Amino acid sequence: MRPRCGPGECMMRRSLRWIVWWLCLPVAALAQDAPPDTLVQRIAACASCHGTHGEGGNNAFNPRLAGKPAGYLLRQMQDFQKGLRHYEVMEYMVAPLDEAYLREIAGYFASQEVPYTTHPTPRMPVTAAARGEQLATRGDPAKGVPACMACHGPELTGVQPDIPGLVGLPYDYISAQLGSWRTNTRNTTAPDCMATVVSHLTDADISAVSAWLAARPVPPDAHAAPAGSVTPPLRCGVLGG
């Protein structure tokens, strides 16, 4: 038997059904009753899961969008369009949207500045905490794993215009995304450097680094670092590598 939808997913499925119903309205009804095509209207579907200002939804799997680099947000929507990322609701919602429309949405959420939400973090044994810190700050050269900070910036707040911040994200979301790269349900433009990194991590590594990142406090200045402030240690297609 197929499992029932988890927290947050049911709400997104209801949103999807509403969108389908709206798209099926007769043309005459749309012409008479359609809301004005404003930016607020355009981001309404996004806000139903990610919050009006992109502050994040009410569960770990509707992540914060506010303040993420616009280039990163644009690429994620395009990756859903191209079938590189897989999530039914997102794939359906962005399928008919052109690049200009997507850029407008990305720019809106990138410009939002709202307080970060705090999330519970799992307790870690001392050895796991040390391993998580190692992977995030120094990497594991013997396994070919660069530090998270080497790409995501010294404060892990991301780098303009394409590298997202990792601070302020819940453990479940971080570990789920790393797992998605491992199972090929999340991909991006080749060479996919994140897929390369994750292929060298064990389950214990993923749990340790996810917990360490989730527990890291958000710095006073959580803006993404300027473009060119880091030199990525791997070739990454998203960076033109």
From TrEMBL:
| InterPro entries referenced in this protein's UniProt entry, alphabetically | Cyt_c-like_dom, Cyt_c-like_dom_sf, Cytochrome_c_Oxidase_Subunit
A molecular function (GO) term? heme binding
Q: Which UniProt keywords apply?
A: Heme, Iron, Metal-binding, Signal
Residues of the Cytochrome c domain? 31-113, 127-217
Query: What Pfam families does the record tag this protein with?
Result: Cytochrom_C
Regions crossing the membrane: none
The residues the entry assigns to the signal sequence are 1-31
Its domain of life reads Bacteria
PANTHER family membership: BLL4483 PROTEIN, CBB3-TYPE CYTOCHROME C OXIDASE SUBUNIT FIXP
Q: What protein name applies here?
A: C-type cytochrome
Organism whose genome encodes this protein: Luteibacter pinisoli
